[in-house]
Structures are given as C-alpha cells and as structure tokens.
Amino acid sequence: MTSLAWNLTLPLVIVTVLATIALAGYIVGASARRDRRRLRRQGAALQQALAGFLADESEMAPLRNVMARVTSGCFWTALETTSLRVRYVRWLKLSRALESNPFSRQERRALRDESPWRRALAARRLGLIRSERSRRALRKAMRRGPEVVTLAAAAALARYRDRGALRWLLEHPASLAHRPAPALIGVLRAFGPAALPELAAALDAGLDSLRLERAVIEVLGVGRYRPARAALEIRAASGDADLRVAAVRALGRIQAIESGMALLGALEDEAWQVRAQAARALGEIRATVAIPTLATRLGDPSWWVRHHSAYALRALGHEGQAALRRVAASSDDPYARDMANEAMQGGFQFSADRDDPERRARPA
C-alpha cells in the first residue's frame, strides 16, 4: 500500500508544482502588462498636457498635476516626443515652464554617475529642457569626458546654442578624436546657422586636427556659407587629399561662380576623388567656362570623374549638351562615348565593351 500511495502522490505533486509555476508566471506577466498599460496611459496624458500647455502657456496647473503622477522614464519619453517637434521659440517657453522640475535635478546628479553610458543618457535628456543649471553641469561633463559623454553633452549644449561649448570643441579636437566623422559633423551642425561665422573664423585661423578641419569644411558647405569661399579655395588647392575633396565639395554647395577657376584647377588634381567632386561642383555652379575641360574629362581613367563630368555638361544647358553630342558622335575613346550617351539618353551604350573587351578592366 505504501508503494501504491507513493506512485499516486508523486504525479500529483509534479502537477501541483507545474501549476503553481504556471500561475506565478501568469501573475507576473499580468502585472507587467498592467504596468506597461499604466505607463502608456501616463505618457499619453503627459503628452496631451504638454500639447495643451504649448497651445495656451497660461495653463500650467494641468501640466503640473500630470507630472506629479508620472515616472522619470515616462516624463523624458513624452518630453522627447514633444520638445523635438516644436519650434525653437516654443521650446524656450516650454523650458522656462519646466526648468525646476525634479527629473532634471535627478539627471544632473546622474552626470556624476560611474557609468559613462548613464552620464551620456543624462546629457541627452538635459538637452531637452534649457536650463542654466543644466548648462553648467553639461559643460563640466563635456570637459570631463570620456568621448561618448563629451559628444552627448556637446549635442545638448548645441541645442542651447552655447557658443562657449562650440569654441571649447574647436580648441580641444582630441576630446572627440575617435568619434566617427558623421557624428563630429552632426554635432557641429547642431549649433545652427548662427555658428557658421565662428566656424569660418576657426578655419581661417587654422585648426590643429585634420578630422576637425574637414568636419568644419563640410558644415560650412552644407550651410552654404559664402564668406568662407576664400578659405575653401585654399584648402581645395593644397594639403591632405580628403581635405581637398571636402573643400571642393563645399565650393559646389555654396554655388559661388567666383570659384570657377579654383574648381577648374581641382579638375586637374592627381587624386581622382578631387577631380570627380570638381566636375560635379562645376555643374552645380553652372560654370559654362568649364565646358571644354569637362568634355576632355569624359576620357578620364576614373568612372566617377567621367560620370560627374558628363552630368555636369548636361546641366550646363545647350552648350554643354552640344559638347556631349560631339563626344558621343566623334570621340575615339569608347568610354567617353558611353558616358556621353548615358548622360544624354539614360542607360548605358556599351560600345567600349564591344569595341575593346580588354578595356573593361580599365582602372576606375
């Protein structure tokens, strides 16, 4: 009987344990789902209160009431969704209203956390609300580093339009020496159009880092800052190849016809990357004086130089298109004919492959 009772009891025990585990899992899952629903409701309510405040700045009480019931994560998520969508003037008004909230104090303390990633998150969050106390804390965090924190703090200060932070970055290129070039360009651009004169002045004075100098050149080009033309022409003619490429590209973006001769000189550069950007830039500034030289560049060893030269000619109106037709009809170079035909008609005309199969391996 004892053995039979044990044989009957053991499965019952196992079933009971499994059922208990399943019930506990269901309870935990249900609780987590309730928490997520509650946080979503809080976030939606806070976003609605923020939108209401922005619609009528005098109604601060509803916003304070909602803020008193939300978590820190919910607050910053809702604020990020809202503040990044509003115009700068409205963001300043929102910042004045929220400047003394407890969540910002929490993040300023987090800027001294042992974890660089937590400090970087705090810097990002503090960039969502303009505050003088946060500005001072962000400047200290930017100087202290490491790079991930410096970048996040600099991006936050860029939203503050903090020119002192910009000057510090220009004077301390080593602080972001290992960040990717797009990140460096992005943080400089974040300071806005008002920072372009300062960037141009720094370029004129000379920078201690080629990476930083190239980033400054790219930002000036994207910002189409014409007063930087002379400094860009100097960089287009000498120095590091990457710097020459960036300077030539920037000259095209600012669309200064006065730079036509400098770009014609770049079209003879030893680096194909510079020649390709020069051809493209000459089309962008509508330099009809460059038509004969661009036509000769249809026979360049580099595919990109041929490509940009052909499309630049097409952009230069009737005279440029007439040059393309002449090359397509009478050039001895099948690669030049192919590119001229592509620019005029679209698609490839593979006379080069047909006439001389060995030239398909021509270096680009």
The Rg value, from CA coordinates, equals 31 Å
- Tell me the number of strands: 0
Report the principal-axis shape: elongated
What fraction, in percent, of the residue positions are helical?
over 70%
- Order of helices and strands, N to C? HHHHHHHHHHHHHHHHHHHHH
Mean pLDDT: 83
- Ends: how far apart? 91 Å
**Pairing-aware structural class of the strands and helices?**
mainly alpha
Q: What percent of residues are in strands?
A: under 5%
Unreliably modeled segments: 347-364
Would you give an account of this structure?
With 364 residues, this protein is an all-alpha fold. It has a domain at 60-133. Helix content is 73%, strand content 0%. The longest helix has 54 residues, at 2-55. The termini are far apart. The model is unreliable at 347-364 (pLDDT under 50).
List the helices and strands and how they pair.
Blueprint: H1 2-55, H2 61-67, H3 72-83, H4 88-98, H5 102-110, H6 116-126, H7 132-144, H8 147-159, H9 163-171, H10 181-189, H11 196-205, H12 210-222, H13 229-237, H14 241-254, H15 260-266, H16 272-284, H17 291-296, H18 303-315, H19 317-330, H20 334-345, H21 351-355
Helix pairs in contact: 1-2, 1-3, 5-6, 6-8, 7-8, 8-10, 10-12, 11-12, 12-14, 13-14, 14-16, 15-16, 16-18, 18-19, 18-20, 19-20
